[in-house]
């Protein structure tokens, strides 16, 4: 299975203890090892049961990689486990039945790592395969489908399922079980990977309270929402105390620009779907792909089906009326409404936008985007630079030498999110209001500042 990352022995031991300590295995119990890799959890279960003189549950270990499966079989040949070379996501209950225990470290594979055939198949077969899903999300759903009555599941995965828009359906599914415990473990748990891992325990029984264990050692008992809403505010109370923000470098130090997107003064006219925009406007270069804040979350990224019809050149200069051509013919159809805008009454040209756009920053430059009012704060990349963000979107342009992917990962990290939630203004319904002046002050790791030494000095 692609995305395999070996699980440290310390973690396998802790997870098996979490699985069994209060619910020890009995004769005839069954355990499932999805994406078993080279068998670290099989070995940990065997050690646990031998040490305590408990029956070892009959196991089924599933792995698509034949080399890893061979190692697992070789190291655990004396254990009552069937080793199957299969794709766990293609297995059904009719094939292998249900299990009293499930334990594992699902593969982390974002949607970019999947073929088009895989994406289509998973979207047809899994309710959690929404938007830009990751394979570990589907492993959760598949494993829960195979969990017996009163069964227990313990997985270690990235913590992003707690709060991203993509994983709302997974949270809804989890809430139909008892999410018994969520433990945030060290960021460097997996050598060479900074994954912000979380150990999640799910029990197939009727209960509401979830025990939260944070990386700073603090604990809470909470009731998580069941409607797919973000769990972040329930889990992270006081989390900024766990982080050291004293790097001496801020987001403003390592970016060229942090601004909100353009304002047309009448999006209902200037923004249309690709199907609605007259072909001549597209062919003659009067349109650009665009996104709003709402579309960022709905589409889980900047790609939308909308175009913005733009009278400005690549430097942000308004095209003169005698050079409008087909744009002028189109704009005349809407002239009365365009002239009714407040910006025109204050002196703007009738076919212009509410604000002159900095097109040299807005278009043709890779950037990071976020919604202006959000919960939780979440960031996406415009890697091609061809999206023109609208006023409900903030865009961040990294400085030369600052890697966009590294900065994006940091902005979406628990550390950055905790700081934003602590420092951003609150909007209605406890949402967070993104503002340039706040984002510029966000502390970032010192290594981002190494490309900015001249500026910092």
Keywords:
elongated, 2 domains, 20 strands, 9-stranded mixed beta sheet, 4-stranded antiparallel beta sheet, 21% strand, alpha/beta, Rossmann fold, Adenine-n6-DNA-methyltransferase TaqI, Chain A, domain 2, 457 residues, 19 helices, single chain, S-adenosyl-L-methionine
Describe the main β-sheet briefly.
9 strands, mixed
Structural class: alpha/beta
Query: How many domain units?
Result: 2
Which regions are unreliable across 5 or more consecutive residues at pLDDT < 50?
Answer: 452-457
In order across it, which strands form the biggest sheet?
A: 3-2-1-4-5-7-6-8-9
Shape label:
elongated
Please state the CA-atom Rg, rounded to the nearest Å: 26 Å
Task: State the separation between the terminal residues, measured CA to CA.
Answer: 48 Å
Look at the structure and name the CATH superfamily of the largest domain: Vaccinia Virus protein VP39
Arithmetic mean of pLDDT: 90
Number of strands: 20
What is the name of the CATH architecture of the largest domain? 3-Layer(aba) Sandwich
CATH topology of the largest domain: the name is Rossmann fold
Residues in helices, as a percent range: 25-40%
Percentage of β-strand residues: 15-25%
Question: Which CATH first-tier class of the largest domain would you pick?
Answer: Alpha Beta
GO molecular function, one term: methyltransferase activity
Organism: Haloarcula onubensis
Protein name: site-specific DNA-methyltransferase (adenine-specific)
Catalytic activity: a 2'-deoxyadenosine in DNA + S-adenosyl-L-methionine = an N(6)-methyl-2'-deoxyadenosine in DNA + S-adenosyl-L-homocysteine + H(+)
